[in-house]
Amino acid sequence: MTDPLRERTAEPETVESPAGGLAMMGEPGAGECVDGVCAVPGVNG
Amino acid sequence: MSQSADPVIRVDIWSDVACPWCYVGKRRFERALATFDGQVVVEFHSFELAPDTPVDFAGSEVDFLMGHKGMPRERVEQMLAQMTGLAAEEGLAFDYEALQHTKTLKAHELLHYAKTVGKQSELKERLLKAYFEQGVHVGRIDNLVALAQEVGLDQAGAQDALESGKFAGAVAADIAQARALGINGVPFFVFDGRVGVSGAQSADVFTDALERVAQRTYDDD
């Protein structure tokens, strides 16, 4: 059985951004508007 | 060093007024803030998603995405319907039929003016609501001044800020800083200049980012 507290406090996965040196968190490309177009899940280009 | 004083976490948010995910992301971020036990200061930064948009675009949001972005009507209508549903989940009532697509440069200039008098957060919320829920044309100076007054900004000050264009440089500087950070899309959140979150991620992701930065802040003391 997993320990919810341990899961909650575990270090989140991060990746380095290609520029700016930021440690990135979250799903890449999710909920984002780029160049005037805001992609939404479930709508294919 | 002692941990007696709570560290203040700084969150810089790049976003546009004409950005549905920015409004949705703002709500999700606010949910994370509401449950976070710490001090956070937030500053919004300018990002123009479609700087080539005319102030008085003659057409609907569907027309804009079809004409300017070359997307087929069916896909655009699907996108807007889906986005409206996602916004509703956050308690937002998007009205794409009433929405008036426009250039957002002046709205950003007003946000910079509002920052100088401590009203940026209130104005950001008011502009997003006006644009997405109330069909207000936020590219026109008269409308912007009226919205500014609603959040307690001085009418003459707002008018002067917009007519003089004296905050245009600040808008350009924000956009240049975004490019330097590798930001190509919005919303984009930077926590204490170290951790980035791109997009309207879940409130849990924002909470994780806040907690991670808070922990690092203590560790650094």
Give an account of the 3D structure:
Chain A: Residues 1-30 are annotated as: Disordered. Chain A: Residues 1-11 have a biased composition (Basic and acidic residues). The complex is a heterodimer of chains A (45) and B (221). Chain A has one helix at residues 4-9; strands at 15-16, 23-25, 33-34, 37-38. Chain A is α+β, with helices and mostly antiparallel strands. Chain B has a single domain (8-53, 103-220), classed as 3-Layer(aba) Sandwich (Glutaredoxin). Chain B has a four-stranded mixed β-sheet. Chain A binds chain B through residues 9, 11-12, 14, 17-20, 22-45, and chain B through 16, 19-22, 24-25, 49-50, 53, 64-65, 68-69, 71, 75, 78-79, 82-83, 86, 180-187, 190, 193-202, 205, 208-209, 211-212.
Strand residue content of chain B: 5-15%
Q: How would a crystallographer describe the biggest sheet of chain B?
A: 4 strands, mixed
How are the strands of the biggest sheet of chain B laid out side by side?
2-1-4-5
Mean pLDDT of chain A: 67
- Could you list the spans of chain A in which at least 5 consecutive residues all have pLDDT below 50? 1-12
Number of domains of chain B: 1
DSSP summary: helix tally of chain B:
9
Q: What is the first-to-last residue Cα distance of chain A?
A: 41 Å
Termini distance of chain B?
A: 5 Å
- Helical/strand content category of chain A: alpha+beta
Strand order of the largest sheet of chain A: 1-2
Q: State the total count of DSSP E strands of chain B.
A: 5
- Range of helix content of chain B: 40-55%
Number of strands of chain A: 4
The CATH top-level class label of chain B: Alpha Beta
Please state the overall shape of chain B, judged from the principal axes of the Cα atoms. Answer: globular
Structural class assignment of chain B: alpha+beta
- Which homologous superfamily in CATH is the superfamily of chain B? Glutaredoxin
* Largest interface, counted by CB within 8 Å of the partner chain's CB: A-B, 32 and 45 residues
Tell me the major beta sheet of chain A.
2 strands, antiparallel
Q: List segments of chain B where confidence is low: pLDDT < 50 over at least 5 consecutive residues.
A: none
Biased composition (Basic and acidic residues) (chain A): 1-11
Region (Disordered) (chain A): 1-30
